[in-house]
Amino acid sequence: MLLSAFILGLLGSLHCVGMCGPIAFMLPVDRSNSMNKVFQVSMYHFGRLLAYSSIGLIFGIVGKGLYIFGLQQQLSIAIGILMIVVVLIPQQKLVKFNVTKPIYKIISKIKSSLGSALKKRTPDAFITIGFLNGFLPCGLVYMAVFAAIAMGNLFHSSLYMVLFGLGTIPLMTTVIYVGKYITANTQRYIKKAIPVVVIIIGALFILRGLGLGIPYISPAPVIEMASSNINCH
């Protein structure tokens, strides 16, 4: 299941380019020194991974709480269904349920802080830009967060988000260097693949929750496995 995080980030990174591409283009990198540029871009990505890790940790607490109450399987099924439903519902209807409205003021402050950081070239500024970038609203990040909650473990939830972030790095880095060379056809193909990937990952979470006894995909519930090993005397 952790591998699905990297795949989601890798194939969905074109969406990230559309949402965060302008920020990547505006990075105040040193274009006269290739080594400095690589370092600065790396610091930007490190900041994003730090943000995703924090998000995974925060929502992992929710998943851990539900796991303690024995709801991990039901949660996994619910998250899988939710991921599939969100992809299938027309975008126009989803806009009506914009989850960013209650935190609009916070988002405005993040954008304001981003504007200030983009004027600096210090290493900590690039980390700050990446970190704040990671907290901007993004539908693909929401999908990854749903999956992270279903992990039911703080470390795995945080790791899921980090792997998701790592998957977005190749294309995000490419955009910073050669973004203008990415053709419209390539963008269309990847955009069409994103919903399919989300549906597949959602189906995997449903299978995981069903506990069908399929190794790695749908393992049997731990409670059942433990009880079957108890010998009565």
Secondary structure layout:
Blueprint: H1 2-25, H2 34-68, H3 72-88, H4 91-95, H5 104-117, H6 123-134, H7 139-149, H8 154-178, H9 184-210, H10 222-228
Describe it.
With 233 residues, the chain is mostly helical. It has one domain. The protein has ten helices and no strands. The protein has helices at residues 2-25, 34-68, 72-88, 91-95, 104-117, 123-134, 139-149, 154-178, 184-210, 222-228. α1 (2-25) runs antiparallel to α9 (184-210) and α7 runs antiparallel to α8.
Please provide a brief summary of the model.
The chain has 233 residues and is mostly helical. It has 10 helices and no strands.
Q: What is the overall silhouette? A: globular
Low-confidence stretches are 223-230
Number of domains: 1
Name the helix and strand elements from N-terminus to C-terminus, one letter apiece. HHHHHHHHHH
How far apart are the termini? Answer: 39 Å
Radius of gyration from CA coordinates: 20 Å
Q: What is the tally of beta strands?
A: 0
- Structural class category: mainly alpha
Number of helices: 10
Major sheet size, sense and barrel closure: none
Helix residue percentage = over 70%
Percentage of residues in DSSP E strands: under 5%
- The residue-averaged pLDDT reads 76
